[in-house]
Amino acid sequence: MKLFTPIQIGPLTLKNRVAMPAMHLNYTPEAHVTDRLINFYVERAAGGASLIIAGGCAVDEVSGGRFMIGINEDEYIPGLARLAESVHEHGALIAAQLYHAGRYAHSALIGQSSISPSPVRSTFTGETPREMTKKDIKNVIQRYADAARRAREAGMDAVEILGSAGYLIPQFLSPVTNLRQDEYGGTFENRMRFGLEAARSVREAAGPDMAVIFRVGGNDFMPGSNTNAEAVRFAQALEATGIDCINVTGGWHETRIPQIPMDVPRGGYAYLAQGIHENVSLPVMACNRINHPDVAEKILREDRADLVGVARGMIADPEWVNKVQAGRTDQISLCIGCNQGCLDSVFTGQPIHCLVNPRAGEEEKFQVMPAAKKKNVLVVGGGPAGLTFARTTAERGHKVTLYEQSDRLGGQIHLAAALKERREFMSLITSLSSQAEEAGVNVILGKTVDHDLVVKEKPDLAVIATGGKPKPAPLAGSDGKHVVQAWDVLAGQADVGQKVVVIGGGAVGCETALYLSRIGVLTPDELHFLFVNQAETPEVLYRLATRGLKDITLLEMQNRIGNDIGRSVNWIFRQNIKRAGINVKTAAKALEITDTGVLIEKNSEIVDIPADTVVLAMGTDPVDDLYQSLTETGTEVLLIGDARQPAKAYQAVHEAFAAALKV
Ligand code: SF4
């Protein structure tokens, strides 16, 4: 595979073409390198990554706050040296990402106003930064150089200048945020000046033995801002500064175009790297949603980039590279782009974790060790909780049988993956199933387990992961023939009329409303055909691709829909719902389902919303009958997942994993 051919980045030879780009981890609450950070990166180094880019490392006091990795004072050098040495010992090279957030820094975290080329309010922070003086500019350029010198003294192999995602350097590059009249503003040449000066100063401070990487945004995806054409010009100018590699990512944090969730097709932004790769001679790295080795290999084979960045992919599976190299691709825990454990934790100020990998960030605490005493374990239910428990106990040496009453594994994940842009959820089940099989779990499909079967089999431990069921609606009329459950709609098992009211605006309600809104829209093939033949105007195609046949109303009692959806993706749900023309009524209480619709109370008024079909999305009840029937039998029984307490897949996987380590 081309993935495993070495590549030269300036003075460095990378043993393969898979790097782990920087991602904020929140493992350094006091800016100093911690054991937690080292343990995290060491596993990724041992897992085969050729280059680990650690970061972001704050170059000064207003870069982002103390929870970034500190590189702004010499006091941080010993910790950085410990990190570099540990990563080297496990076979990878390491770079420090030099980070300055500019107007993306929250004043509450840096204790003063953030800085930027111009005082343009950020929708990301809701704050207006202070305009940088010439003295500020010179000072920050020097701080980049000082940081590079510290990385060198710490024994790092490279530094990466962060010039993407709407941070300080792109704030200079963009006419949206740079309104200056001096030599740092106005023309594109002037707006590039700050980034190029930073590159030159870092290049000089890094010296000849360190590589200098520059991370650029391939397109800001911001109205009025830079596109791939400007990114190419900037990359060409960077090449002349003597840097060694360009790492290409997507748009700003403020963009309304999703950048990394599962909505983005795998490798969907490789074209941004390709645009730059075609116009520079430096090695170029492609990033964003490269979670599967086939996608990575294809990008390299098609010569769209020289190397790939797999960031969340290696949070999800530190052994990503080694597994590919060993021909065990099916054993990789693929990143599903859910953001539930990583980005959503960043937004709430928590250390990051991972839905599919409960060990991420807990490498020391959670070790999958052989069990002291081998047991016969019977698991009932093949959803994420049951599968995780079965796989993990089998990996620890227990003899495990998993029963699933349907003819397929996955449980409710099939519903979560019903929307085409949420299909990546199924990778969780694909990965877990393969891992369970390799670990030796005996999987029996299509078999309903009852009390007698468990008693007859006499397991040492019976684990009940029978999942949940839709909550009944406490509404008059909810037993009507035209009333269906959201789960049945998502499973494609319900007849749904033209006028639809969905009651419940949580994740399941939003997904169901969107699912129904897609009925009658152009298929991807139809859209592609009509687009390339210019058969319709872009406006007509947009309407045909977003507006389906049904008239849908989504009701929610609270003031906002999607309250149980993480911050990093709930805006995408709301945007898609608006785009689909779904009529959203918040702060609306359903009072009664009638033969012709739903009576609701909103703003102290009673309103009748006509409907042919009413869809209930009002929560989940546990299915724990089997557990209750076994509690008196003397069999050791454990209740996990939704069967114990309905929650998200994240909780199901984490709870099951932790429980499996105790058996
Ligand atoms: Fe990927 Fe989700 Fe894990 Fe984040 S939490 S690394 S998006 S699988």
Shape assignment: globular
Largest β-sheet summary: 8 strands, parallel, barrel
Strand order of the largest sheet: 3-4-6-9-10-11-12-13
Counting H and I runs of at least 4 residues, what is the number of helices?
A: 23
Name the beta content range. Answer: 15-25%
- Number-wise, the strands total 28
> Considering DSSP H and I runs of 4 or more, what fraction of the residues is helical?
25-40%
Tell me which ligands are bound: iron/sulfur cluster
Task: Describe the protein.
There is one protein chain. With 663 residues, the chain is of the alpha/beta class. Strands 3-4-6-9-10-11-12-13 form an eight-stranded parallel beta barrel, surrounded by seven helices. Helix 1 packs parallel to helix 2 (77-89) and helix 13 (384-395) packs parallel to helix 23 (649-661). The longest helix is centred in the N-terminal third of the chain and has 20 residues, at 134-153. The model has no long low-confidence stretch (mean pLDDT 97). Bound molecules: iron/sulfur cluster (SF4).
List the helices and strands and how they pair.
Layout: E1 7-9, E2 12-14, E3 18-20, H1 35-46, E4 51-58, E5 69-70, H2 77-89, E6 93-99, H3 107-110, E7 115-116, E8 130-131, H4 134-153, E9 158-163, H5 168-173, H6 188-206, E10 211-217, H7 228-239, E11 245-249, H8 270-277, E12 284-286, H9 293-301, E13 307-309, H10 312-316, H11 320-325, H12 343-347, E14 376-380, H13 384-395, E15 399-404, H14 413-416, H15 426-439, E16 442-445, H16 451-457, E17 461-464, E18 468-470, E19 483-485, H17 486-490, E20 499-503, H18 507-517, H19 524-532, H20 538-546, E21 551-555, H21 567-579, E22 583-585, E23 588-593, E24 597-602, E25 605-610, E26 613-616, E27 620-622, H22 625-630, E28 637-639, H23 649-661
Parallel strand pairs: 3-4, 3-13, 4-5, 4-6, 6-9, 7-8, 9-10, 10-11, 11-12, 12-13, 14-15, 14-17, 15-16, 17-28, 19-26, 20-21, 20-26, 21-22
Antiparallel strand pairs: 1-2, 18-27, 23-24, 24-25
